[in-house]
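Example 3.2
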Amino acid sequence: MQRTESAPGYVQNPSVLSESTRSAVSWGAVIAGAVIGAALTATLITGGAGLGFLAASPWRNDGASGTTIAVGTVVWLFVTQIVAYGIAGYVAGRLRTKWPDARRDEVYFRDTAHGFLVWALSSVVGLALLGSTAASVVSGTAKAGASMAGAGTAAVAVAAGQAGGGGDNGFSIDYFADALLRRTDPDLTDNQSDVRGEVTRMLGRSLAQGELSDEDQAYLVKLISQRAGVSESEAQARLTQVRKAADEVEVKAREIADEARKAAATFFLWAFASLLLGAFVASFAATFGGRARDL
């Protein structure tokens, strides 16, 4: 005959009697570990930034190279994740509530989950605090990329010229306009500001579109010949030479932009790997802390 709860000799499952309605998560320990992880991460990153500035130098052939600094930055990110979340996970494991009635495998799972929660909470808080800065960086990068793709060297050259204050080291469309309109005899030089703006805009448009229309080219040749006091053949040679130089500047600017894109992609991939390592270290360290807690 089947036994019921009221039948003589029925024994209820002990695990049912000890089942608790409270959560197994010790949020106090998780929050404490997350705070420790965030604080240690900020401390180690600050120290790493100081070491990076000491290693770098504005002087040529002095200080660490760009490759060395990049490798050192990645290594420091991994060290930061290991140290910060190793300590944070262990502390969370030592501070969590003791579960006397849980099975051993269940205790191991809970400790691992507590370590992962420490890493997750610390990362979310850190990203929230740095959200505005990250948004500014991403927005600025996107705008720069769009400008580079759309306007080519025209935008870069103008920006470089403005940043350099119009100095000899700055690339500017104005310089190319001056080169086109420069007279062979300096004594005959007059105020040419009325046409320089027009020439600058035409050169900028040609760089943006990648070519100079036949109408614009014919107009520029006549204008250069008239203003510079040279023959049309020499004016055509000037225009060809200047456009070739501008194209070289554009290619160089795109190469620099492509190198920056590759460097940024490499850095973010390594940063992603370091974050995954931090999650593993926090989870693993929490199991050691929990095991020490139960001794």
